[in-house]
Amino acid sequence: MSSLSAAHPLSGFGWNDDRAADFAPLAEAGLTPARIARVDRGRCDVVVADPGTGEVRTVRADSRPVGDPDVLKNPCTGDWAAVDLSASPMPVVSALLPRGTAIVRKTSGKRSEGQLLAANIDTVLIAVSLAADPDLGRIERFLALAWESGAEPLVALTKADLVDDAEFVRADVEGIAPGVTVLVVSAETGEGIDVLRACTTGTTALIGQSGAGKSTLTNALAGSEVMVVQQVRSVDEKGRHTTTTRELIPLPGGGVVIDTPGLRGVGLYGGEGLAHAFSEIEELAADCRFDDCSHTSEPGCAVLAAREDGTLPERRWESYVKLQKESAWIASRSDARLRAERAKEWKNITKSMRGANSPVRHR
Length: 363
Ligand SMILES: Nc1nc2c(ncn2[C@@H]2O[C@H](COP(=O)(O)OP(=O)(O)OP(=O)(O)O)[C@@H](O)[C@H]2O)c(=O)[nH]1
Ligand SMILES: [Zn+2]
Known about the structure:
It comes from Kitasatospora camelliae. Belongs to the TRAFAC class YlqF/YawG GTPase family. RsgA subfamily. Monomer. Associates with 30S ribosomal subunit, binds 16S rRNA. It holds the Pfam family RsgA_GTPase. By secondary structure, this protein is an alpha/beta fold. The protein has 3 domains: about 5-100, CATH 2.40.50.140; about 100-260, P-loop containing nucleotide triphosphate hydrolases (Rossmann fold, 3-Layer(aba) Sandwich), CATH 3.40.50; about 270-335, Probable gtpase engc, domain 3 (Ribonucleotide Reductase Protein R1, domain 1, Orthogonal Bundle), CATH 1.10.40. The protein is built from 11 helices and 13 strands. The chain has a 6-stranded mixed sheet, with helices on both faces. It has a 5-stranded antiparallel sheet with strand order 3-2-1-4-5. The longest helix has 21 residues, at about 335-355. The chain starts with a helix and ends in a 7-residue tail after the last helix. Mean pLDDT is about 85; it is low at about 1-5, about 230-245 and about 355-363. The structure holds guanosine-5'-triphosphate and zinc ion. Guanosine-5'-triphosphate binds next to α6. Guanosine-5'-triphosphate (GTP) binds next to α6.
């Protein structure tokens, strides 16, 4: 980060020279840069620096002007926006800056719609409690979701103070997380928190099951009680345990944390993330004799050979097949036309970004 961006009041929230360049034409139009902390039915809370005093504060703004029928284009926690602070009766979000990364999951239930969890994330921190036997299949799912977002996954095994053999579990999890750092931490004793802090210098989104210790970890990183940790399970009207806020929490040493609500299920949305999450299988498949090998009975199949000699554990293979089927199902159910349009649009955006460095103004 250059001295220029470091001096900006919002640099603690991830503002940098690239954002400033994207924003330049909007600044000329008298708009103020803001980072979206929370979105709530046509309104959102944004973090802005007061144009006069430079004081950073959260204001409520009308986000309907950037609303879009496509849920994935709607404003989301972590998005950068251009806000008209002088609008009456309340500030208005006039434009969104182009997104870098985004965490998208399939909504629960039978529908194949995507749900945006957070945008412009550098690190997806997957919290897994050591207090229960690790569910490797679930961690693989989270990893695929994380890779799919475009951000770097990181795993934190939490509540290390509650177990004796954390290293044993760490080895298991490392075995199913190729290319991913797996840390053992405890918010209670402080174990591993410094290392974690060093890994979370950009924007970090915390994901994990309810009760994995995400909010407690956020507090430990922030060094203060910024999140309300629920000691007692609170239950919404459908009987589910939820954390309803996903605010942006600035860390003392730089970096921002987004604490997402506990995820019971993570449906995969898209498939590229799977290839990353199971990279050793992709590598094996590259060695199969036939390019279109189905890894079921073909001679010279490197995947079958690895399953037979045990280098590829059966559980791992089955998990891969299951998640692949699931993501193929979603791909077939999702509106193919819509996806194609989106891809085209992103291409155009990238092109125009390269050409004029101009931000996208949402209709
Ligand atoms: N012993 C111990 N308990 C912890 C630790 N971290 C969290 N806990 C406890 O685990 C419980 C759940 O922690 P939370 O931080 O609320 O979990 P969460 O992942 O944010 O849960 P949701 O808000 O439902 O998504 C709380 O009772 C915490 O006190 C730890 O390092 N050690
Ligand atoms: Zn094969």
